[in-house]
Write a structure and sequence with these properties.
By secondary structure, the protein is an alpha/beta fold. The protein has one domain: Alpha-Beta Barrel (TIM Barrel), CATH 3.20.20. 40% of the residues lie in helices and 16% in strands. It has an 8-stranded parallel barrel, surrounded by 4 helices. Strands 5-6-11 form a 3-stranded antiparallel sheet, with no helix packed on it. Strand 12, helix 10 and strand 13 form a beta-alpha-beta unit. Helix 8 crosses helix 9. It is globular and about 50 Å long.
Length: 359
Amino acid sequence: MIDLYSSIIRPSLFGLSAETAHEFGITALRVGLGTREARNAAARRFDFRSPEPLSRFGLTFRNPLGMAAGFDKNGTVVDQLSALGFGFVEVGTVTFRPQKGNEKPRMFRLPDDNALINRLGFNNDGAAAAAQRLKKIDRTCVVGVNIGKNKDVPIEEATENYLATFELVHGVADYIAVNVSSPNTPNLRELQNSENLSELLGTLQTRNSELGAKPLLVKIAPDLEEAGIEQIVDACLSFTIDGIIATNTTISREGLRTASIESLGAGGVSGKPVADASNKVIASVYRHSKGKLPIIGVGGVFTGDDAFDKIAAGASLVQAYTGFIYTGPSFAHDVNVGLQRRIDAAGFRSLNDAVGSHA
């Protein structure tokens, strides 16, 4: 049987610039799966439900694979992605005020590496617009909202900026992810430092309690040293943060096969090249927290085996983005099926039993 996506659709999309193809893909999902009937038809083909309940930080997930932040920045295709088999969707990154992001071109494919480079810079319609959209969706899966800092806000005013965004999305998010790890907003990663992170998390968690607590997670970088990871874990445990998302994109160019990589300029690398670094951070978080912090593992998931590697390292859920771009509509279903087969073949009674088995 001909794989329509890999033989026809992907070559056509890859003939466009990466960002243009992304925008086209969002539109195609929004229109093509715009009706409930179309989404139901897609779900009959692609939906996957784990054999056992997946309860994570007070939420129930129908399967362990989510769409990572960055794909649906503005919350326009949540239901469509759910219909394609994703067990949860993380919208964003959203900022308090709308912003255009960095100058184009700012997104590039690395086919020889099964990777992408982006320096988008949190381009989004703003938190208020995203919240209005999320109020209207059917919500057939868990929906997270990833929040970040406006580019023109100095680090010393970051907490206030995050808090304003947090308050806007709190009512429409099943969980909220605090992005302190994008390499594409100047100085943002300084918020991973212990003092800055403690101020930010303490303020958000206090307001979270006042509004009616929602799960609060922190998204961290793959480029951290062990000591930095331990400081972040300690801060998260201290402020009763519900989980860690590991990891964001990497600034490393080590091992890339793409020729003239330097000519593409700055940006974060996602996809296969970040897989090992992500797994090492996951294992480190799992060990240092003694398994007390649920981890969403992200970075380089293309297959069920890739997802299993993250589960075995300590993740209890996984996310993907680049793998979906390269693989197409059947991606979530195929990864979920492959992951379940790997769990069964390894002799585990459930995914829960496999979590951290290699850490």
